[in-house]
Amino acid sequence: MAETKWPGCAGGLKAVVLDMCGVLYDSEPGRTVAIPGSVEAVNRLMSSDLQLRFCTNETQSSRDKFVAMLQTAGFDISVSQIFAPAPAAVAVLNERGLRPHLLVHDGVLSEFDSVDKTDPNCVVIGDAAEKFSYQNLNDAFRVLTGLEKPLLFSLGQGRYYKETNGLSLDVGVYMKALEYACDLKAEVIGKPSPRFFQSVLNDMGLQPHEVLMIGDDLVNDVGGAQNCGMKGIQVRTGKYRPSDEKHLTVTADGTVDNLSQAVDMILSQRGG
Amino acid sequence: MAETKWPGCAGGLKAVVLDMCGVLYDSEPGRTVAIPGSVEAVNRLMSSDLQLRFCTNETQSSRDKFVAMLQTAGFDISVSQIFAPAPAAVAVLNERGLRPHLLVHDGVLSEFDSVDKTDPNCVVIGDAAEKFSYQNLNDAFRVLTGLEKPLLFSLGQGRYYKETNGLSLDVGVYMKALEYACDLKAEVIGKPSPRFFQSVLNDMGLQPHEVLMIGDDLVNDVGGAQNCGMKGIQVRTGKYRPSDEKHLTVTADGTVDNLSQAVDMILSQRGG
């Protein structure tokens, strides 16, 4: 077992923010499998005096469906605890009076029910998977080229994710495709955008140094949180790779085998 | 009519290289329409003592089918005069002992008939249009991530092209997508790659300063040829835009209304 690195992250801690896929569970086609010990670890955090939020770049389902799916895997989490790119995008669209052309997964469409989508003046892409057909990408491209000021929002910027049958292309790849086609820079909504982490802090009414982020993605979870002044812990589950511990630009504040071990460390340091 | 700029490009000229789409013809769904005067202009060049080659980034059909299509539009051109990315790629693959996974248009597949495609050790993408499905792009991505040294060849790097029903995404967009997904840099085969222009020069046995390139694409045709030491003329047909004449990095050696006018200038300067 690799060495646990934990230089006293839990001092003055008031809240924990958890990434979901790869920390709580692994995804298999058609089902969600809890990572051993993670259901109990979440319950222990909930029973503590720490605030708890979940921060995901999941854009294949609405939070309602997501919570239901998590329940079948044993997690008892409420919609209000979950921060995801789609509702964050809706907030941005409303704030700036924008009407999106959507290229997103069918599962997440209901999050955009309240948004005016007529005569679009921007494009929003999410992890649309099979919906990333040539026709659909071309349609999004034509909307962008038809705008005086082309405006593209991307729900995350991941390169790929792991499924049991292999790696699958994530939304960032199609963001880069449209950026090149239209010669523009997309606005990323979701991790590692500082605005996204800040919205979680605002919701809890806390300062960054009072909050610890735990994730399996070194750049988007750990690096993103650190850029906002939070501490960032990486777990050796999900998309973790040993090379992460020698990364050139991001160094986690701690590295542990899994969520269960992280919660052990946090609660024992607090005498909990 | 805009001003003709023609600072004596034809001095010492021994050959002309023509781009095809946007110079000879415009593409409409299901048919090819000759640009007025271009059939006759090609015939006049053929009757002169100048060598003539055609240099295209067309990767939706084999040269055989391409020549047949051009014939219906009135052009009498032979396969041996046409330089296109697919046969150039075949030469590279043979030279380096590479076995490609192909993500190309069905129409161009026959150009790769002679190539061993078992147990692929590289990926070749062309303008696959509707074949750029999520599944197919993911398959190409998985081949690349499975290689010790991922190697991607792109048949061109265009952003988009114009069809009568609007703009359509070109191969360069998908090249950028895979570059980001795999954190690599593709090798571009076709214009504006210097290697591609050099193969045309080699075929004619000429030095760059003896050859004039005529195209509608300022960066890929004109700039690419100039980078090899050839002169580059832009026509105001096809994808030409007035802003090209104020481009920051590429300045054509001459700008004319169309191919017919270019050939007038060339032949009159030569006393032809």
TrEMBL record, chains A, B:
<protein>
    <recommendedName>
        <fullName>Phospholysine phosphohistidine inorganic pyrophosphate phosphatase</fullName>
        <ecNumber>3.6.1.1</ecNumber>
    </recommendedName>
</protein>
<dbReference type="InterPro" id="IPR006355">
    <property type="entry name" value="LHPP/HDHD2"/>
</dbReference>
<keyword id="KW-0539">Nucleus</keyword>
<keyword id="KW-0378">Hydrolase</keyword>
<comment type="similarity">
    <text>Belongs to the HAD-like hydrolase superfamily.</text>
</comment>
<dbReference type="GO" id="GO:0046872">
    <property type="term" value="F:metal ion binding"/>
</dbReference>
<dbReference type="InterPro" id="IPR036412">
    <property type="entry name" value="HAD-like_sf"/>
</dbReference>
<dbReference type="GO" id="GO:0004427">
    <property type="term" value="F:inorganic diphosphate phosphatase activity"/>
</dbReference>
<keyword id="KW-0963">Cytoplasm</keyword>
<keyword id="KW-0479">Metal-binding</keyword>
<dbReference type="InterPro" id="IPR006439">
    <property type="entry name" value="HAD-SF_hydro_IA"/>
</dbReference>
<dbReference type="Pfam" id="PF13344">
    <property type="entry name" value="Hydrolase_6"/>
</dbReference>
<dbReference type="GO" id="GO:0005829">
    <property type="term" value="C:cytosol"/>
</dbReference>
<dbReference type="InterPro" id="IPR023214">
    <property type="entry name" value="HAD_sf"/>
</dbReference>
<keyword id="KW-0460">Magnesium</keyword>
<dbReference type="GO" id="GO:0005634">
    <property type="term" value="C:nucleus"/>
</dbReference>
<dbReference type="GO" id="GO:0016791">
    <property type="term" value="F:phosphatase activity"/>
</dbReference>
<comment type="function">
    <text>Phosphatase that hydrolyzes imidodiphosphate, 3-phosphohistidine and 6-phospholysine. Has broad substrate specificity and can also hydrolyze inorganic diphosphate, but with lower efficiency.</text>
</comment>
<dbReference type="Pfam" id="PF13242">
    <property type="entry name" value="Hydrolase_like"/>
</dbReference>
<dbReference type="InterPro" id="IPR006357">
    <property type="entry name" value="HAD-SF_hydro_IIA"/>
</dbReference>
